Amino acid sequence: MRVSTEQFTELAGQGVEKARARPSLKMVPHFLYQKREAGLATLPDAAAAQACGAAIRSEALSRLPDLLEEFEKNAIANGAKVFWARTAEEASEYIVKLAKERGAKYVIKGKSMVTEEIGLNGCLSEHGIEPWEGDLGEFIIQMLRCPPFHIIAPAINIAVETIRDLFMARADMKEPTVDPVELGWAARLFLREKFHRAEFGVTGLNMAVAETGTIINLENEGNIRFAKSSPRTQVSVMTLEKVLPTMKDALHVMRLLSRNCSGQKISAYVSMDSGPKKDGEIDGPEELVIVIVDNGRSRIYQDPRAREALRCIRCAACLNICPVYRQIGGYAYGWVYSGPMGQVLMPLLLGLDKTQELYRACTLCGACKSVCPAGIDHPSLMLYYRSLDVSADIPAAHRFGGKKRPWKEALFFKAWSTAVERFWMWNSGISMVRPLMNRGSHRGVIRRMKGAFSGWFRKRDFPAMAKETFHERWEKIRNIW
Amino acid sequence: MKGRILLSARNEILERLKAAPKKEIPVRPFMPPLKEVALGRDELADRFAEMFTAETGIVYRAKNNDHALETLTGIVKREGLKSVMVSTDEVLAPLNLPAWGIKIDVKVMSPGDFKGRDDFKDAVFDGVGAGITGVDFAVAESGTLGLIHDRDQARLISLAPILHIAIVPVERIVPVYESVVASVFEKEPFPSQFVFITGPSMTGDIRGHLFKGMHGPRRVIVILVG
Amino acid sequence: MKEVSMFIPCTVDLFLPHIGEAMVSLLQRAGANPVYHRGQTCCGQPALNSGYRKEAKKAAKHFIELFGNDEAVVAPSGSCVGMVKHHYPELLGDEPDWFRRAAELAPRVYELSQYLVDVLRVSDVGAIFQGKVAYHESCHVLRGLGVSTQPKALISAVKGTKLVSMDQDDFCCGFGGEFANHHPDISEAMVQDKVRNYLDSGADLLILCEPGCLLNIGGYLSRHHPEKRVMHLASFLAQAGREER
To answer: Which positions 21-40 of A are in contact with B (Cβ < 8 Å)?
Structure first.
């Protein structure tokens, strides 16, 4: 998948335009957000449940290396194979090699974010193995070659007419229709054939349980269950932070994930695999290969602050509540993970230099933090990344590749910080700036300004600087008060 | 050579993780239990039925196995089913579905009738109008079915056909997921797969429009026995 | 009489001094004695939010030097209060002596409505305003400080005022400091939605407790809906009080 995080501002502008043209787009996250509220209300103490989710994820990260070893040991004891990949390339190449060795003509995929992160589809195609996305939304955007608009509803923004044309051309649909149910039915028939004949299935996973060596997937469509039932070979890919200590923890995270994601008490299907099929079982994989992907995470893990971003369980509650995501949609974020989740993860995965706009395009409103079932403090992380741009000399900045700020900004804050601890300088600075600032003001309002602050004035006014600041007034009339 | 490369990636990753600064493990906050934990047997069955129906499932209640078979016959006739795929699990075994099929002239198949995976897949994907299974558990908390997949419970029976009919003895209804998982993972070997099924296969991926039967069953019918 | 030290945010000092004046009169009316340290400048938020921690630290130390001995510090801004309460201890975490001073100061810093209602136990300031009022839950007031009931109690106690509900009242207005200027496409769309919700609420007036939101929403209203008003809670209460007299 192409990375376009550096075009954030431009893409965000396009996103705003699209949402303006189609107000229904903004309703998607709002609808999911409302469902989430109702879903959480079914728990006796939602706040305690969320806090417990945060504690579980925090513990899982604290014990990460031990839990991974425990998981690996138990998964192998269950009969699974475990492959460790340092990078996206290592993971993709391994899966391609395995698919070739097994003689797979195509690969059926269950919906997963990690395989997008490692660019598996591209790698498979290059080697002449067709990847077929089993999830309806992923299937649509795969054929359209566009990024996911929303992590759990990747094609929710695509017009039915576009889908109709796509299915007529590419998915053997017989009669043109724009009815979502008939379109869904056409996709069912087409993908059913792929599920039926599949010899090689690839899925991601939501949780890996250290205690039992079990992997767990949540879904509503059944594409993942098919990918884990029909083929002879099942490859399940996980990033290394997916591991949880116990089955009990996994059940709690499952409750939270379903509710925070779609407001469901539990998603339609939850499948838990402990090894490949056993003798006498007629379906299920003959071999189960679990690929544990690092792709930069062990490096992120070195930094105790940045590490907190790895708590994420990909529920998308933060997207749905984010006022910025609601305006711009998923494309602007430029890679796999959109919304606040992406704003805290992608800078670490791709480097701060390629993602500076992402973590600066945030008002720090804290809505994401307030809904996160994993206890991620997104605003603090974004402030941290911003500081790494500025203090290029600290080791973390080197690790994540901070990108220098404009010299004018740096100079401004240098001057600012000199004045901020000297009030006389601060106040004389104000007196000096006032005539400049108020040059174009009219009746106490500034309506236009060129240069560095022009962005504000496109659609907004600003009050002129007061003839007397509060400070100056206080000096004069404090005796009256 | 190959082995060494694999091992080194593993060790490299783990060593890096182990070398990182340690952080404390937080204390877990107290959580009040779900209200289902306090329910009695009858209440559990009602709660299960209520929740399962809320997930657009359909519930029939039967007093005993004979009654369950009658109900099943009714469903099969109403749906106009010619052939069904059935599991051989311990819930279904006493119902003797093959004999029942002959009596009502419906072709009853089970995985044992097939030479292997491919033949079985052909039938379960394209040759049957419904899959019939027992369940190992049913969970009142969310109206959820729990199925342990093994040689008597093939995965595709509850997944590939457009209709899934599950026979649920009331004594298999438990309050919460924890009650299920504790027994499924009580001792090794663990089942190759364990699934929770809650309602039909569905999607909202096209403009948020709910579409049931995306890949799996469009409807799930439960016959609650006992 | 309870002495309380006022922190005047730089946005208020420079552009919205009437909010500071309103705060003075409100505090006095509520039976407190507001004092003002001449040496105050800025809490340091702009620097911290742009990543300039070293520079923000200077502001923090200056603030602590100035306000460190005060029994109570009150400011008409949730974000400035949040800066002092939450970010100062974090910023100064690597300097034990300063950290201790920051941590000791933190619980004594209040947002204005919080101070009036929770500390002075005053919710009726004796004001009158005939009309419908909507309240914007500013991010740093609501989620930053958990302050929401206090301003609503103060508004509801104003004679003749009806507090009406507003859709998405807890959604960010799109200010975010430099964000508003640097990402105008997004920020404008956000403030448009906020104003749309305000207009749809049928309120005559929008009240809030954060100068940043006031500049943003007010700036947009001034350009597009000059007949509609947005006010800081302090100004509203003080002005409504004057109308009464």
So the answer is: 28, 31
